[in-house]
Amino acid sequence: MSETVSVSPETKIKKDPRRGLWLRLIPFFLSASLFLSGFFAVFAPLPLVTLGLTQGFLWVFAASIVNAVIVYFARGPELFQFYLFGVVSLGLLMPYFLRYRKWSLERTTAGIWIAQILAIVLVFAFYAHLHGVSPLQEMKSVATGYFDAFMKTLTPEARTTVLGELSLEEWTRQMMIELPSTFATLALTGIWINLYLAVSLNPGRVLSQRGMDRKAFQRWKTADWLVWPTIAIWAVMLLTEGTVSDAALGVFKVLMTVYAIQGLAILGAVFDAWRIVGFFRLFILMMILFVMLPLLLGIGFFDQWFDFRSKIRQSS
After folding, report:
1. What CA–CA distance (Å, rounded) separates 66 from 47?
2. In angstroms, what CA-CA distances link 47 with 42, 58, 72, 139, 150?
3. How far apart are CA 182 and CA 149, in angstroms?
4. CA-CA distance, 37 to 25, in Å (whole number)?
5. Number of Cβ atoms within 10 Å of the Cβ of 243
6. What distance in Å separates the CA atoms of residue 25 and residue 31, rounded to the nearest whole number?
7. Closest to 96 (Cα-Cα) out of 217, 233, 195
8. Which of 62, 160, 290, 293 is 20 to 30 A from 253, alpha carbon to alpha carbon?
9. How confident is the model at residue 8 (pLDDT cuts 50, 70, 90)?
């Protein structure tokens, strides 16, 4: 005969309402703090994404405004603009795509990345129209201002190290060519890192309730048709010289970032199949990223034909 044990209200653990309030208030300054720290700037969108997933749009919108104001008064308009494009856009869009649109990881990443690029293009086009110049001239003017401000912060020795054998004009021209692809690559990398952390941490268990967890990244699949533009860009890069070749190289770097993400997904499946966990798993991953990056890119690219993950499942 079973006996029911009743628990009196006095023995129940009371929730501290202040704890819930602090969890809501921390993102109102933590994002700006991470961004201004420099080293942890890549994680700056995560507090906003967490707030958006657990509390909703109005909360993350308010937190974005407060953090943006902190960045503006702490570092000025230049970093403020970077914060808006790189952090606030991610904090607003990622919860929307994951919680309300319920997009896949691939579509969420592509959607946020395209939205960020379009926002930048539209802003440059708007200011170019106000100043009566072309968007390319406006971008060149803004970038030159950033480069000049950057050079003024360097010591003569550091400036010589940065420039190398190039003159300031040649270095500026080279940076102008590389700037779009650099920003696009950093944006894509930042989106993937914060998406991975958001899904892994699963704040409020919002994502697990719709069947999304860390293993979803192991099923990451780049669109098959992307192979052919990649091959075409690679051919242009090899067969041309000068500005055309440099521009093709920039596009090629962005495409290789996409395949690096797919390579990481395949490695995750391999690690799980071989039961590689903990520090040893992290050590192997770091070795591949910093020493054998071409291997990672090759795995991601040729997976379109060989489907490595299906072979791993068959052998395990």
Report:
1. 13
2. 11, 14, 18, 30, 29
3. 19
4. 19
5. 10
6. 11
7. 195
8. 160
9. very low
DSSP state of 13: P
Q: By CB neighbour count within 10 A (0-12 exposed, 13-18 middle, 19+ buried), where does 72 fall? A: middle
For 174-210, what is each residue's pLDDT tens digit?
888 888 898 899 999 999 999 999 998 988 888 888 7
- Structure tokens that stand for 75 in this block: 């570092």
- Tens-digit pLDDT profile for residues 215-259: 889 889 999 999 999 999 999 999 998 888 988 999 999 999 999
> What distance in Å separates the CA atoms of residue 270 and residue 224, rounded to the nearest whole number?
21
pTM: 0.85
70 — pLDDT class (breaks 50, 70, 90): very high
- DSSP codes, 101-142: I---HHHHHHHHHHHHHHHHHHHHHHHHHHHTS-HHHHHHHH
11 phi-psi bin (left φ>0, alpha ψ -120 to 50, beta other): alpha
- pLDDT-above-70 percentage for the chain: 92
∠ CA 251-305-117, nearest 5°, is: 25
Contact by Cβ (8 Å): 243, 234: no
Residue type at 243 in one-letter notation: T
Instruction: For the chain, count helices (H), then strands (E).
Output: 15, 0
**Structure-derived torsion over alpha carbons of residues 156, 161, 164, 166, reported in degrees to the nearest 10:** -40
